[in-house]
């Protein structure tokens, strides 16, 4: 029997990557704008920004995504409200399929959010530069980089684009005449995911307080060992480590909003002292609150190093 292989065709091929950024902007940040002969997209992870593309102006909020086609002028400005976090990726792709993204405002789903997160993770593994410098024009490769990191970026980004086109081109519409089915049994993994989501919501609602594991267990009717196991499985962190990360992310946003000093931020987030807050901030962020504020300020003034 003779076998005949199938040569697989690409619908979208990423030729080059020019930039992969995850920005934490001040609430008054403004980027004057530019145009270039390759594609770029901006996705809002937190907060909101105003974006000009060509002659149109759009406010983007959490989960919103827009593309800038080659040679289209674009700029971005924080709106003065919540300090924004943005994913910005620019790349070369010459396939006609890309023109699907012209003049569209899209919203990403959970799959696409995870693909973006994976791109950022792989970028840190192969590029020898910070990903939060808005003035960076070249991304030097690490020597050596992590095996497969460059290819994974290409695969994740192509998957991201294909998933968007499929989802917006072929929305799933359920027939009104579908027969009713018995609800499926909830598996342990689904149950754990629901518990994890519920606990995360609980933690986010208690960011301004000090909570203990015992209190979390009591308020959420869950055992200590089960709680720790679920968090280790879902995020590879202990629950207090995770809570600390949430607090420091909130602190970063407050610093960038520039409406409280460090002492006020520490008090607002339930820290017992400014010194303890500073130690926890450095432990999570790798720099002190002052260093972080200086870095963000330099970024806003175009003096980022």
TrEMBL record:
Pfam families per record: AraC_binding, HTH_18
Entry-linked InterPro entries: AraC-bd (IPR003313), Homeodomain-like_sf (IPR009057), HTH_AraC (IPR018060), HTH_AraC-typ_CS (IPR018062), RmlC-like_jellyroll (IPR014710), RmlC_Cupin_sf (IPR011051), Tscrpt_reg_AraC-type_HTH (IPR020449)
Name under which the protein is recorded: Uncharacterized HTH-type transcriptional regulator ypdC
Family annotation (PROSITE patterns): HTH_ARAC_FAMILY_1 (PS00041), HTH_ARAC_FAMILY_2 (PS01124)
GO molecular function (one): sequence-specific DNA binding
Originating gene: ypdC_2
Residue ranges occupied by any HTH araC/xylS-type domain in the UniProt entry: 197-295
Keywords, sorted A to Z: DNA-binding, Transcription, Transcription regulation
Source species: Dorea longicatena
Keyword Transferase assigned: no
Organismal lineage: Bacteria, Bacillati, Bacillota, Clostridia, Lachnospirales
């Amino acid at each position: 029997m003779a076998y005949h292989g199938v040569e697989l065709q690409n619908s979208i091929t990423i030729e080059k990557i020019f930039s992969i950024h995850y920005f934490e902007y001040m609430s008054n940040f403004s980027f004057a704008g530019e145009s270039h002969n390759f594609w770029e997209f901006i996705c809002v992870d937190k907060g909101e920004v105003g974006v000009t593309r060509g002659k149109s102006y759009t406010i983007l909020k959490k989960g919103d995504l827009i593309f800038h086609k080659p040679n289209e002028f674009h700029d971005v400005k924080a709106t003065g409200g919540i300090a924004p976090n943005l994913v910005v990726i620019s790349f070369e792709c010459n396939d006609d399929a890309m023109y699907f993204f012209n003049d569209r405002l899209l919203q990403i789903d959970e799959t696409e959010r995870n693909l973006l997160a994976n791109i950022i993770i792989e970028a840190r593994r192969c590029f020898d530069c910070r990903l939060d410098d808005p003035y960076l024009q070249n991304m030097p490769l690490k020597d050596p980089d992590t095996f497969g990191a460059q290819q994974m970026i290409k695969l994740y980004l192509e998957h991201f684009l294909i998933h968007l086109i499929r989802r917006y081109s072929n929305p799933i519409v359920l027939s009104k005449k579908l027969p009713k089915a018995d609800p499926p049994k909830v598996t342990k993994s689904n149950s754990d995911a629901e518990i994890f989501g519920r606990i995360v919501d609980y933690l986010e609602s208690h960011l301004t307080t000090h909570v203990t594991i015992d209190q979390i267990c009591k308020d959420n009717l869950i055992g200590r060992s089960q709680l720790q196991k679920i968090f280790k499985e879902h995020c590879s962190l202990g629950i207090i480590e995770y809570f600390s990360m949430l607090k420091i992310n909130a602190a970063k946003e407050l610093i960038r909003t520039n409406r409280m000093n460090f002492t006020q931020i520490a008090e607002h987030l339930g820290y017992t002292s400014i010194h303890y807050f500073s130690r926890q901030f450095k432990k999570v962020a790798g720099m002190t609150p002052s260093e972080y504020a200086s870095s963000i300020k330099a970024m806003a003034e175009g003096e980022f190093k």
